[in-house]
Amino acid sequence: MDNDAKQEYLQTSTPPHPVEETVTLIDLCSGGDDSGLVEQDVQRRYNSGGAKRPRGSSALDMNNAKKKPTADELKFVLPEGFGPSITTEASSGRVGSCNKQFWKAGDYEGAPGGNWDLSSGGFDHVRVHPKFLHSNATSHKWALGAFAELLDNALDEVASGATYVNVDMLENKKEGNRMLLIEDNGGGMNPEKMRQCMSLGYSAKSKLANTIGQYGNGFKTSTMRLGADVIVFSRSPGKDGKSSTQSIGLLSYTFLRSTGKEDIVVPMLDYERRDTEWSKIARSSLSDWDKNVKTIIQWSPFSSEEDLLRQFALMNDHGTRIIIYNLWEDDQGMLELDFDADPHDIQLRGVNRDEKNIKMAAQFPNSRHFLTYKHSLRSYASILYLRIPPSFRIILRGSDVEHHNVVNDMMQTEQITYRPQYGADSYVKDSNMSAVVILGFVKDAKHHVDVQGFNVYHKNRLIKPFWRIWNATGSDGRGVIGVLEANFVEPAHDKQGFERTTVLSRLETRLIQMQKIYWSTNCHKIGYAPRRHPKAGNDYGHTNTSPENDHEEYSPSGFKTRASDKFYSSSYPNHRGDNGVSGNDSSLYLQEELRRERERSKALEAEVELARQKIEEMSKEQENLIAIFTEERDRRDVEEESLRNKLEEASNTIEELLNKIKMLEGSKGPSWRR
Length: 674
Prior knowledge:
- The protein is an alpha+beta fold.
- It has 15 helices and 22 strands.
- It has helices at 2-10, 71-74, 88-91, 131-137, 143-156, 191-198, 218-226, 253-258, 286-299, 305-309, 355-363, 368-372, 377-382, 502-522, 583-673, and strands at residues 12-13, 24-28, 37-41, 164-172, 177-184, 227-236, 245-252, 268-274, 277-281, 319-327, 337-338, 347-348, 393-396, 399-400, 410-419, 435-442, 453-458, 461-467, 480-485, 552-554, 560-562, 566-569.
- Strands 1-9-8-7-6-10-5-4-13-14 form a 10-stranded mixed β-sheet, with helices on both faces. Strands 18-17-19-16-15-22 form a 6-stranded mixed β-sheet, with helices on one face. A two-stranded antiparallel sheet has the order 2-3.
- Helix 4 packs across helix 7 and helix 5 packs across helix 7 (218-226).
């Protein structure tokens, strides 16, 4: 049975229908003798207008049909650095050995010199040095942000039938160290999509409305941020009459550095299902295939092609399995990722881990996510998405991550609708966009814990966790948290912040205003001294947006904002939705203000009465103490006088006894002596 399976995997064939528009070649992308190979399409599928180029057309002259060269006609000489031609020194990793600390891994220069005259299929090409992989990954300052990118990719696969993403730790049997596994049962990637995944900047998701990815850079930055090397296994079911495929791709920073490459080289293997057998898809020659196999085996955690193919047995008919290895270490030589602190979690060491916050999280469970999300993947993943499809699971080290909505940690909530006001220079995708802001006190606020900030989501994805925008002196603002989904601001490339635009600045200004109003209105309910209520013009209600009432103000980030940015509070259901305020609304607003003032006055009167009662009680206690002390002093004086008298009487008695003794001695005189 095993022999049959082995023969099935090793059977080779060529595609039954030759591809008319693509000639695949081995491209010499590097400038030295130690160049790397990469399979790529010389014939581009699309011209600048997006249409397919006719077969045989040249990129320089579309009207002159030319016969496309074959791999044999190009007579490329395979570079050193693959298969048997790799030297022992290179294979041992002595050449340009990879630094194990992420922030120092970019410190190398590659092979000196290089021939820049090489071209690919007749076209000059820009060379991408391997150091770019590292510098590109530095966009992730926070390692858990890299995990989020990979979780995004898995969640996007829900449209292709994905029901779970599994994140786990594996043992590298070849090297004896630890690896990361991220796998899903989505639609997988065919060979073309696998190459797009490994390419820089390509993304088909930017054209789709319900997907998170948009820049085509997340896979590369996230995997390279977590470890030096990644190997990807993906199986895709056949569609539209096409056969099922499975592909293997290796993106290895260790390989590129150790062999002194000056271009990014990605060895790949593709297989196609024919009836019940898997056959190799040989894009050029079997010799080139063998060199790709040897390169992947040498620089991956696997020891043979059969060992590689066993990974596909761990997935169903479709899915993707990503293994990241040679994980980065910290300055102390320990893995940056901590797998030992919690067997069902992956945590960070270093500055993101605060032992004081961990202890507080056990004491204040409603503030747990605020206190632990910076170092705990389980905590961060539980709030990463505003909504999770009911059938989708995030599994972390064998245990499901329980989705959590921070709104459930709030009390005394208020809901406010914010509508952004776009400037003349702003590109507006949807003028009806708005954000519903829910804010309130965290349920642990009565303990005066310093928890505050807004969870800002974009297209269901958390971009700014607990964004602290009001940095007031003292205790102002403590305990106020909020949640909103702002699809009208654009996230940055690392999805850990937003692009600094005027629209974002206006949102920031309004959020600060909301927090200040909420705090000053409600802080006395959780034990803080009442604050003076802000002026009516700063309330949740919107201001008049007519041109004569528009004025500019500056947000903390330095951008000008307009007072015409509108937001409405559900606390005031009679507020109009137009650009003005009716007389009836003004009357209702004043009545509401008077009612609040009466409530505050009553609260102050109650506090004053309570203070007066306490003062009276203290006065009575003081009088009682004085009376007790006076009585005690009088009693002590009487006792002292009595003792003094007794002492005097005793002295007199002693004196009398002494006199009697003398008298007796005198009367007995001489006779007593005889």
